[in-house]
Design goal:
The protein has 301 residues and is of the alpha/beta class. The protein has one domain: Rossmann fold (3-Layer(aba) Sandwich), CATH 3.40.50.1820. The protein has an eight-stranded mixed sheet with strand order 1-2-4-3-5-6-7-8, with helices on both faces. Helix 3 packs across helix 4. It is globular and about 50 Å long.
Length: 301
């Protein structure tokens, strides 16, 4: 297995990406999309990428515009533009026989790509997926919680709170407890890496830009739920049963709506599910890739 750092120009913006190359190819290429906030290709996929490559997959993980090593885009970060960027990245990298997967924001981008360019990807993996909820929270207080978040975004208070939070190791560690529930996985090295990403890049700022586009006063702008039944791509949904951001029931409903959807629930895991329980998530991803590749082989015979 070899790790390669490279870049490509996509929609007028330089996109840095990591590429894990297998010693011997034995399966599909895999395109992995990280989440929002203080995230990057390395943070989300630094353990997953090598494991998939060892199993024979070429793995590509970009830093989205403004995240990680990629500079900010010359265009505003909206959901539609992010979906378009992924479609063009697939073309620039000349991906053909590929599976696409994403976490949170990246999961929503994955769904957008599947809808925007049907049947282009041969398989998909959604982890803690965005785009299947009408508001930021469910339940009796869902609208009030959503409205409060909208006001914090519009007044700039949320950005100020986030900047303060991202400078304090103790506060960051406490915040990560909601994302990574397993204490052994919430290491000092992970806390330091997230703090470094928050301090060194523009990811927090561009994520705030995307949030302001997506969070309307009473609802989220992007909800793919009513379109899921049109997606024929074999899709694995990986979700922690302790995810406080996206209720498990929403993902279960999405899995039922997808004609070829399959839900894998990770016990005790939070929203950053592959960092929380890689021991369960990576084997589930590999099993799905084997099924997708096996089905493709059967179809071609």
């Amino acid at each position: 297995m070899e790790l390669r750092h490279a870049s490509a120009t996509v929609m007028g913006t330089e996109i840095a990406y990591r590429e894990w190359l297998p010693s011997e190819t034995a399966g599909s290429d895999v395109l992995l999309l990280h989440g929002g906030g203080a995230d990057s290709a390395e943070l989300s996929w630094g353990e997953v990428g090598p494991a998939l490559a060892v199993a024979g997959h070429r793995v590509i993980a970009p830093d989205h515009p403004g995240f990680g090593l990629s500079p900010r885009a010359v265009w505003p970060l909206t959901q539609e533009r992010l979906v378009a960027y992924i479609g063009e990245l697939v073309s620039v990298l000349d991906l053909d026989d590929y599976v696409i997967g994403g976490l949170s924001l990246g999961g929503g981008m994955t769904l957008g790509h599947l809808l925007d360019q049907p049947d282009r990807a041969k398989g998909a993996i959604l982890l803690g997926c965005y785009g299947v909820m009408p508001r930021l929270a469910d339940g009796p207080l869902g609208l009030a919680t959503h409205l409060a978040s909208f006001l914090l975004l519009r007044t700039g208070l949320l950005s100020a709170m986030t900047r303060s939070y991202a400078r304090n190791p103790r506060t960051m560690e406490r915040g990560l407890r909601d994302l990574v529930r397993t204490p052994a996985a919430r290491t000092p090295a992970l806390v330091d890496a997230v703090l470094a990403e928050a301090a060194s890049g523009t990811g927090m700022a561009v994520f705030g830009e995307w949030q302001r586009d997506q969070v309307l006063w009473n609802r989220l702008r992007t909800v793919y739920s009513d379109q899921l039944d049109s997606i024929r791509t074999p899709t694995l949904l990986v979700h922690g049963d302790s995810d406080s951001g996206v209720p498990h029931a929403r993902i279960a409903t999405a899995a039922d709506a997808l004609p070829r959807g399959e839900l894998f629930t990770v016990p005790g895991a939070g929203h950053w599910v592959q960092r929380d329980r890689p021991d369960l998530v990576i084997p589930a991803m590999l099993a799905h890739l084997r099924r997708v590749d096996g089905a493709s082989t059967t179809d071609s015979e």
